[in-house]
Amino acid sequence: MEKLIIDTDFETDCDDAGALAILHGLADRGLVEPLGIVASVNSCWPAAGVRALNLAFGRPELPVGCNFDCPDTFAYRLHRENHIPQLYHWKLVQRRPEASPGRFRPEEAVALYRRLLETAPDHSVTICAIGLLSSLAALLESGASELIRRKVKLLVTMAEAMPPESSGGFNWKMNRRAAGRVLNHWPGEIAVSPMGRKILTGAFPCADNERGDFLRTAYSKMGGGDPKFLRPSWDHIAVLFAAGALGELAGVSRAGTLRYDSVAGPARWREEAGGNVRFLEQRANDDRFARFIQEWMAASCR
Fold first, then answer.
1. Whole-number Å distance between alpha carbons of 12 and 53
2. CA distances (Å), origin 59, targets 36, 48, 62, 89
3. Can you spell out the DSSP letters for the chain?
4. What angle do CA 145, 2, 4 make, to 5 degrees?
5. Strands 152-158 and 125-129
6. Could you give the CA distance from residue 45 to residue 178 in angstroms, rounded to a whole number?
7. Where would you tag: which of 72, 73, 195, 290 has the fewest CB atoms within 10 A of its CB?
8. How far is CA 205 from the centre of its chain?
9. What is the pLDDT along the chain (302 residues), one digit of tens a residue?
10. 247, 292, 286, 240: which is closest to 21 by C-alpha?
11. Which of 38, 16, 54, 34 shows the shortest CA–CA distance to 106?
12. Contact present, 15 and 233 (Cβ < 8 Å)
């Protein structure tokens, strides 16, 4: 059973909500042990939204961390301002007001990472970052390299980055300094999950219950009220891979080295024996992948 920590922005894209629903579905079936969820945005509201979703899915004990200390970049703040109508965490918290910032206090992100890693068996934890790398950079900068080396067996980072060279997409570009810190200095294995743009899924098939209502709220909010809104499945794929649940639908590349330019942004990968970075490779067509993810979303809401 995989021990997972999820690091999510949980704010401007509903695929984070879909991915966390699948995390709960995997845990319900004994396939993963979720250790905690870290909200990487410098705001209390994403963490509150994560807490609300955890309550709806029956895991009030699951720890939630918040990035209290690392300011969001200008690029991310501008992005958020341009997507205010699509922010869904407020709606989720309205459904579970006990998760609101005035009533729930998440742990500080780095402190939570350290606590969870220190109590985990060696080489047992997979971290799956489906958002910005701000909190992971802060963890490294706190002097945790040896702790990571001992406890973490794999870091999965969702980014639309294809070898040999790529900008890395939203999650890396929104905080290039943090991405450079993590990608260039991570003391362990990294898997980059670039797939999902053409694999479209939605919340409309989910059950008519609180879990399903939470997902439909997130997807409908982002989709401008469209009850059958479809969104790329980037984050779902990363979580399913981290859980070891993709099977023959995806594989990984050979090992290589990755260098990320934290100023200009390009990520350059070179195949190299002994390298610590691999890329997920799609081995099923988009329709088959979408059906698989849609089945997991529906099953997770039952």
1. 16
2. 11, 14, 6, 17
3. -EEEEEEE--SS-THHHHHHHHHHHHHHTTSEEEEEEEE-SSSHHHHHHHHHHHHHTT-TTS-EEE--SSPPPHHHHHHHHTTGGG--HHHHHHHSGGGSTTT--PEEHHHHHHHHHHTSPTT-EEEEE-S-SHHHHHHHHTT-HHHHHHHEEEEEEE----SSEE--HHHHHTTHHHHHHHHHH-SS-EEEE---TT-EE-STTS-SSHHHHHHHHHHHHHTTT-TT--EE-HHHHHHHHHTT--GGGEEE---EEEEE-TTT--EEEEE-TT-SEEEEEE-S-HHHHHHHHHHHHHHHT-
4. 55
5. parallel
6. 21
7. 73
8. 22
9. 999 999 999 999 999 999 999 999 999 999 999 999 999 999 999 999 999 999 999 999 999 999 999 999 999 999 999 999 999 999 999 999 999 999 999 999 999 999 999 999 999 999 999 999 999 999 999 999 999 999 999 999 999 998 999 888 899 999 999 999 999 999 999 999 999 999 999 999 999 999 999 999 999 999 999 989 999 999 999 999 999 999 999 999 999 999 999 998 889 999 999 999 999 999 999 999 999 999 999 999 99
10. 240
11. 38
12. yes
* Residue carrying the six token digits 């997507």: 83
Q: What's at 262, amino acid-wise?
A: S
Tokens 């971290």 label which residue?
127
Can you name the residues that pair with 157 across neighbouring β-strands? Answer: 129, 192
Which residue type sits at 186?
A: W
